[in-house]
Design brief:
By secondary structure, the chain is α/β, with parallel strands linked by helices. It has two domains: 2-247 and 458-473, 3-Layer(aba) Sandwich (Rossmann fold), CATH 3.40.50; 273-453, Glycogen Phosphorylase B (Rossmann fold, 3-Layer(aba) Sandwich). The protein is 36% helix and 21% strand. The protein contains 18 helices and 18 strands. It has a nine-stranded mixed β-sheet with strand order 3-4-5-2-1-6-7-11-12, with helices on both faces. Strands 15-14-13-16-17-18 form a six-stranded parallel β-sheet, sandwiched between helices. Helix 1 (18-32) crosses helix 18 (458-473), helix 5 packs across helix 6 (199-206) and helix 9 (273-283) crosses helix 13 (356-365). The protein is globular. It starts with a strand and ends with a helix. The structure holds adenosine-5'-diphosphate and alpha-D-glucopyranose (GLC).
């Protein structure tokens, strides 16, 4: 099949979270299965600065944006996985420091930026050869594409993947003319949601198929608790909704061949994990130590349950436990984390910022990964942590529930620690269990072995997507 993916992130060129990792890995896994896959993204500044051999095509596309006609030059490149890339050049929209806005905020013209991108995508699809049969769209920035495909009766089938229901692309109704859609699209049966334009809702209503990134999250989002206001809209369309678990990209995330670690290790030869722990200690200014090390690698947003980490900090630090945090996002949360390291410099280290190399060392050098997310569509960090023998302590929700086997002392099995309610009490209890396992070398070893041997391959996900595409083309 011929597939065109459209999204706003792609590792390692433009990344704020797991979406970027999915866009790097899934097209490559589909190509392995014999499909032709290309991706289209905005030509963000970070892509222009980091993607080698970017070249202009002779294609310039123009689309209406409200009362003006706006053009974009199309550039072409290849990812490090040899996936063909189309990039939409529009300097005034995309040549900026951040993808979506400065930390904790949005650019005020995001409606124009991403409506424009969503208009260009189907227009470009008409020029791409081989001609795509399926447009596979990701998250709200491409949410209007299915509405444009429908209104213009274009010959593409659309698949839309919800990576995160909390980000919907909500804009006031006065922006509707910017879509240039027929006026009846601005109605409760269309893209309107409480007098606003809702790009995610547009996708839910108009895409041929909807997926999300774990089976558990596919169920959860149909409930008021997790539905972010759209539960009813989703429930009415459950016939076209499915959950397909993400994979982990072991070509980038495997301690047996990770160039960012001091020495390789694996399930069959785990000894050198300790060297990563020592290197990590040195890097944050500590002497090597023998006590449980917890880490947090995360966007600092409400979703990730960061206040819970602050609340259990005392429990983590008991019996010599230490915490290293890598994250950026909400300035208030950043400040509270900085306060913690000011209070406890010998047991808490915090690095604010986005640092891929440090993320690798942190995963390898830690004993436990904290993921108290209030909701988690899939979560990739825990998948990587498992392969690095770093046991996740996580809220039992979404993809965390689908990928972590809770520790069962009776059977001496499990790959992590799950707690049911997102409360400091339940989280502390899970931390205590983890520390008990840490004190029991045989149990710790058994858990690490099981975790490192778990396989979350992209091949399996790619096979599921392939089945879905086939239903649509046949
Ligand atoms: P989400 O997409 O919700 O942020 P995921 O767990 O799916 O969560 O993916 C997060 C990805 O972003 C992982 O690859 C993780 O290593 C990475 N990441 C998050 N924060 C940082 C950071 N501050 N520095 C480096 N990598 C980070
Ligand atoms: C989103 C979700 C995360 C998921 C990622 C990739 O950012 O928050 O859970 O793993 O997308 O699908």
């Amino acid at each position: 099949m011929n597939l065109l993916f459209a999204a706003t992130e792609l590792s390692p060129y433009a990344k704020t979270g797991g979406l970027a990792d999915v866009l790097a890995a899934l097209p490559a896994a589909l190509r392995q299965r014999g499909h032709s896959v290309a991706c289209v993204l905005p030509l963000f500044r970070s892509i222009r600065e980091t993607l080698p051999e970017l070249r202009p095509t002779d294609l310039t596309l123009s689309v209406p944006l409200g009362t003006s006609l706006q053009s974009a030059r199309i550039w072409e490149g290849r990812t490090d996985r040899e996936i063909r890339l189309f990039l939409v050049e529009k300097e005034e929209f995309f040549d900026r420091t951040y993808l979506y806005g400065p930390p904790g905020g949005d650019y005020t013209d995001n409606a124009s930026r991403f409506f424009f991108f969503s208009k260009i995508v189907p227009r470009l699809a008409r020029h791409v050869r081989p001609k795509p049969e399926i447009l596979h769209l990701h998250d709200w920035h491409t949410g209007l594409v299915p509405a444009f495909v429908r209104s213009e009766r274009l010959p593409f089938r659309t698949v839309f993947t919800i990576h995160n229901l909390a980000y919907q692309g909500n804009f006031w109704g006065l922006d509707f003319p910017l879509t240039n859609l027929p006026t009846d699209y601005f109605s409760p049966a269309g893209i309107e949601f409480h007098q606003h334009i809702n790009c995610l809702k547009a996708a839910i209503v108009f895409a041929d198929r909807l997926t999300t990134v774990s089976p558990r999250y596919a169920e959860e989002i149909q409930t008021p608790e997790f539905g972010c206001g759209l539960a009813e809209v989703l429930r009415e369309r459950r016939y076209k909704l499915s959950g397909i678990l993400n994979g982990a990209d072991y070509s980038r995330w495997d301690p047996a061949r990770d160039p960012l670690l001091p020495a390789p290790y694996s399930a069959s030869s785990p000894g050198a994990k300790q060297l990563s722990k020592d290197r990590l200690a040195k890097q944050v200014g500590w002497e090597p130590f023998r006590a449980p090390l917890f880490c947090l690698i995360s966007r600092l947003t409400e979703q990730k349950g960061i206040p819970l980490v602050l609340e259990v900090a005392d429990e983590l630090r008991k019996e010599g436990g230490r915490l290293v945090v890598l994250g950026e996002g909400d300035p208030g949360l950043e400040e509270r984390l900085r306060d913690l390291t000011r209070l406890f410099p010998k047991s808490v280290a915090v690095q604010i910022g986005f640092d891929e190399a440090f993320a690798h060392l942190l995963l390898a050098g830690s004993d436990f990964l904290l993921m108290p997310s209030l909701f988690e569509p899939c979560g990739l960090t825990q998948l990587y942590a498992l392969r690095y023998g770093t046991l996740p302590i996580a809220h039992e929700t979404g993809g965390l529930a689908d990928t972590i086997v809770p520790w069962d002392p009776a059977e001496a099995r499990g790959t992590g620690f799950l707690f049911q309610a997102p409360t400091a009490g339940a989280f502390s209890e899970a931390v205590r269990k983890a520390k008990a396992v840490y004190q029991n070398p045989a149990a710790l070893q058994a858990m690490r072995q099981e975790a490192m041997r778990r396989e979350f391959s992209w091949e399996q996900s790619a096979e599921s997507y392939e089945k879905l595409y086939r239903q649509l083309v046949e």
